[in-house]
Amino acid sequence: MGGQPMFIMSEDSQRTQGRDAQSSNIMAGKAVAESVRTTLGPRGMDKMLVDSSGEVVITNDGATILNEMDIEHPAAQMIVEVADSQEEEVGDGTTTAAVIAGNLLGEAEDLIEQDVHATTIVEGYHEASEIALEAISEQVSEEVVDDEVLKQVAESSMTGKGTGGLTAESLAETVVEAIRHVELEDGVARDNVTVHTQIGASSNATELVPGIVIDEEPAHDGMPGEVEDASLAVLDVELGVRTGEIDAEYSIDSIDQLNTAIDAEESEVRGYAETVAESGADVVFTTEDVDDRVASYLASEGVLVFEGIGDSDAKDIVSATGATRVGALDDLEETDFGQADRISAENYGDDDLAFVEGGAAAETVTVFVRGGTEHVVDELERAIGDALDVVATALASGEVVPGAGATEIAIADKIREEAAGIEGRKQLAVNAFADALDIVPRTLAANTGRDPIDALVDLRSAHDSTGRAGLITSGEEVTIDDPFDYGVIDPADVKREAIESATEAATMIARIDDVIAAE
User: Fold this and answer.
1) Is 95 assigned a catalytic role?
2) Of 38, 39, 59, 95, which is the active-site residue?
C-alpha cells in the first residue's frame, strides 16, 4: 500500500510533530540545564529542594539537584541522565555537563529556526566534539601528578561547596591520603574508600580512619569497649538455641523432665560460647543473632561480640582485615581469623559505632565525617565523595587540565579555528558548538558578579596572548590569569566526559521530530 504511512494509536494518545516537537523537547532540556546553572563555580549558589513529605535537601551538587527534582518530561530526563553518567564515570563535573548540554540545545534551536536540518546539526556537533577532545589533550599539563597536584585537584572540586567549618584545603589532604591508601599497582581501588557521616560535632572533627566504621553496638554491656591487636572472626552463625522450621509442642509431665530440658538447652548454649572462646578469637562479628546467655558468657571471657551485622558490613570487614566468613561454628579455625590493630565500640549520642582499624591485610579506609546538623554532614559527604572521585580519576590517568573556564575557552578557540576549513552548513553547527561552550566561563563570571560579556572578551584576549586564561576567584577578588599558577586544576577525563555526554544528549534530543505519548 503506497501513500502516507498509517499510525494506529489509541484515542487517548497525543502526537506532536515537526518544529513543535523539536521546540518542546529543546525547551524542556534547556529548562532543566538552567535550573542548575547558578550553582556552577566557587561562587555558585545553593538550591533548597523540598519533597512532598517535607524533607529538605540543601545543596549545589548538580547530580543531587537533578535527581531530587520530580522531572517527567522525557527530553528533560535525558539531561538528568547526562549528570548521572558524568557522576558515575568521573564523579564530578555534573553541573558543567548539564549546562553545556542545555546550551548546545539552545544553539541547535537557533539553527533549526534558520532552516539548518537537524541531521546537519548532529554531524556538525559530532565533528566539533572530536576537535574538542583534541583541544583537551593539548591542554594537559606536563607536570607529574604528585600529591601536591592531587591536593589542588581535590581543593578545586570542593571549592564553593558546603564544607562546614573546614576549608577545602584541609579536607583535600584527607582526601588525597585516603586515595593513596587504596592505590594499587594496576590502578586505584576507589570502592575501598567509604564515607561515614555522624552528627554531633564540628566538621573540624572529620578524620581518616584506616579501616571501616559500622553502625553496631556490643552484644552485651559487660564486653570490653576496645581490643588491640585483635584476632577476629566473621560468622554467618546464630549463637543460640536452634529452633525448628515447623511449630512443635512438647509435653512435660514432671519437674525432672523440665530440668532435663533446661539442662540440655544450657549445655547447647554453653557449648556455643565455649567453642567461640576456645577458638582464640578476641572479637566476633556475626550476621545472625546471639543468645543473651552466650553473650554474657563471652563477656566474662573478655570477647567482644557484634551481632546482626549486615551482609555488606560483613564483606567490608573481610576486605579490611583479611578474615574468612564461616558458615558453621564447627568449621571455625584460626586460619579464618582476620587481624586488626584496634577494634573499638564508641558511643555518639544515640548512636553506637564499631571501629575496625588497621591490620596487615587492610585495604579499606573510611573518611569519618562530622558535622553539627544533618544538612551539614550530607553536603560534606557529597563534597568529599566528588573530591575522592576526581582525585582517583586524576591519579589513574595522570592527566590534569586548567580549571576556571580556561579549558572551555581553549576548546572553543580551537573549534572556531578548525571550523574555517569545514564546508557547507555544517560549519554553522561547528561554530554553534564553540559558542555553546562559552556558557561555562560566562556563568562563572556571572556567579562572581562580573559582567559575562566583558569577562568573556577579556578571557579570549588573555588566552590569545598567553595560551591559557581562566577566571580566578580569591576571596572577593576576581582576576584573569593562568589557573595552574593558582592551583585551580581539573582531571582531563572530567572535561572529556562532560563534552561527550553533553554532545550525545543534545544530538539525541535535536533529532526527535515526532513525539507520540499515551495518556
Assistant:
1) yes
2) 95
List the end-to-end C-alpha distance of the chain, in Å, as a whole number: 30
Active-site residue flag, 366: no
Q: What is the rounded CA–CA span in Å between residue 131 and residue 249?
A: 79
Nearest CA-CA partner of 290 in 217, 329, 241: 241
Task: Tell me how far the alpha carbon of residue 115 is from its chain's centroid.
Answer: 41
- The per-residue pLDDT string of the chain (519 residues; one tens digit each, 9 = 90 and over) reads 456 665 555 555 555 555 556 666 677 777 777 777 788 877 777 778 787 777 787 776 777 777 777 777 777 777 778 777 777 777 777 888 888 888 898 888 888 888 888 888 889 999 999 999 999 999 998 888 888 999 988 888 887 666 655 667 778 888 898 898 888 877 787 888 888 888 877 777 788 888 888 888 899 999 998 899 989 999 888 887 555 444 555 555 656 554 554 545 566 667 777 888 888 888 999 998 888 888 888 888 898 999 999 888 888 888 888 888 988 888 888 888 988 888 999 888 778 898 988 765 567 888 888 877 777 788 888 888 888 888 998 988 888 999 888 999 999 999 999 888 888 888 999 999 999 998 888 888 888 888 889 888 988 898 888 888 888 887 677 888 888 888 888 899 989 988 998 898 888 887 776 555 555
Domain boundaries, the chain: 15-141+401-516, 211-361
186's grid cell: 594496576
List the catalytic residue out of 92, 291, 386, 438: 386
What's the gap between Cα 492 and its chain centre? 18
- Single out the catalytic residue among 38, 59, 61, 163: 61
Q: Is 287 a catalytic residue?
A: no
Q: Which fold has domain 211-361?
A: GroEL (3.50.7)
Q: Which listed residue (39, 59, 94, 321) is catalytic?
A: 94
Which parts of 212-322 fold into alpha helices (H)? 255-279, 292-300, 311-321
The full DSSP string for 121-140 is HHHHHHHHHHHHHHHHHHH-
Annotation: CATH topology of 15-141+401-516:
GROEL; domain 1 (1.10.560)
Instruction: Name the nearest CA neighbour of 317 among 242, 191, 426, 232.
Output: 232
Q: Is there a contact between 414 and 135 (Cβ–Cβ < 8 Å)?
A: yes
Task: For residue 59, indicate whether it is catalytic.
Answer: no
